[in-house]
Each structure stands twice: as C-alpha cells, then as structure tokens.
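Memo to structure team: turn this sequence into structure tokens by end of day. - J.P.
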Amino acid sequence: MTENTVYIRKYSSVEEDPRFFVNEKEVWRYAGYFGIPGESEAELRGELEAVLKEVLPLLTYKVCYRKIGIDFTKDRAVLPFDQDSSGLYKCLKGSEKGILFAATVGLGIDRCIARYQRINKVRALLAQALGAERVEALCDAFCGEIREEACREGLICTNRFSPGYGDLPITCQKEIFRLLDCPKSIGVTLNESLLMSPSKSVTAIFGMGKNVERALGGSKCAGCSKTDCIYRGK
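Reply from structure team:
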C-alpha cells in the first residue's frame, strides 16, 4: 500500500563522506571527454580544479521520497501514477513495494553555470558535467541507504528508473511532483516544458522484493533503449 507520508533526507558535510567523493572520470565523461586529461593538458585540468573549488561549497544535497505499493497486470506495473512503460515493468517485475523519490543538489550550481556561460564556456561545460555527476552520486548514496534497510527485511532492490528512460514518458513528472510535493519538500519546481529547477535534479523509482527479476547491479542505463547515447554507462 502506498503511504501518504513524504520523507525528506538532507546530507551535510558530504566532503567528508566517501560516498560523495567526486569521480573526476565521470565528470569528464559527462563533459564529453572520455578519459582524464594528461599532463600536456594541464590548462584543462586547471579549469576543472577551479570549478570544483567554487562550486562544491555551494551544493546542497536533498532527497524527498515516498513508499509506494506496486502491483502487476500481465504486462504492466500498476503504480500511484499513470504510465504504460514496458521498460519500467521489466525493471520492477517481482517487486513487492517500491520507493518514488526526487533528489537535488540545489540552485547554487545553476547560478555558477549562468555566470560561466557569460565569461568562460569551458567552465560552464565542466560545471554542467559536475552537476550531473553530483546528483548521480546523491542518488547512489540515497539508494544505497535504502538498499541496506531493505536487506535487513530480506528484500532485494532493483535499479532505479526515471522519466525519460526508455519508454517512460517525461510527462509522468507532473504526477510524480504531485505525489512528492517537490516544491515544498525540497524546493524543486517543474515548468510548463517539464524542466526541473534546480536543473541538477532527478526523479526516479525503484522496487524491492524477495524475488525481483532485475536486482540492483550493473549499469543504471541498462533499462534505457537508447543504446546509441554517448553518455551510456558500460
């Protein structure tokens, strides 16, 4: 059964938490540079160091979530929001319940990106990439906590699945925002174009059960049908 309570988790002093150490290789990947700049590219590395120094202190890590019931028809997961995604069905199959959540690293990075766009395009690109890496790290940390809690109940978690993955339409955001009351819970809003503000925010769902068919593990991109995406995880 879906609970009505929306829970909130906030993370502080994350620079001391190993779960939140910046994965620079991921930052470069999000920036479209597949690898890490060598010694001959010291200037490029210096740009990232400058972005890290300025942006990291501005980030605020927040998650709101709701415990939901999950049922299944022959080929569809029945959830508190309307959808007909076969990809989500495959991801959640076997789950007994689930978690619907939204996560954000705050507005500070958006302000930096806007300023960098005017004065330093390289730093703007790197800040965008850092924001993507940071919000993914937040999602990983939150899901890891829930996974540990589920394990104590003898449950296994699935990978998470977001609107825009595979055939789950981005229009689901409207109902997800209603269910989580994101503006009130963690200060994330949704505009008419279905873009979130702060921009470095994510919504997702994952399931839990004793007999899930796709246990957590491997690439979080596994449920997405866009196999030609340059950002696809291995």
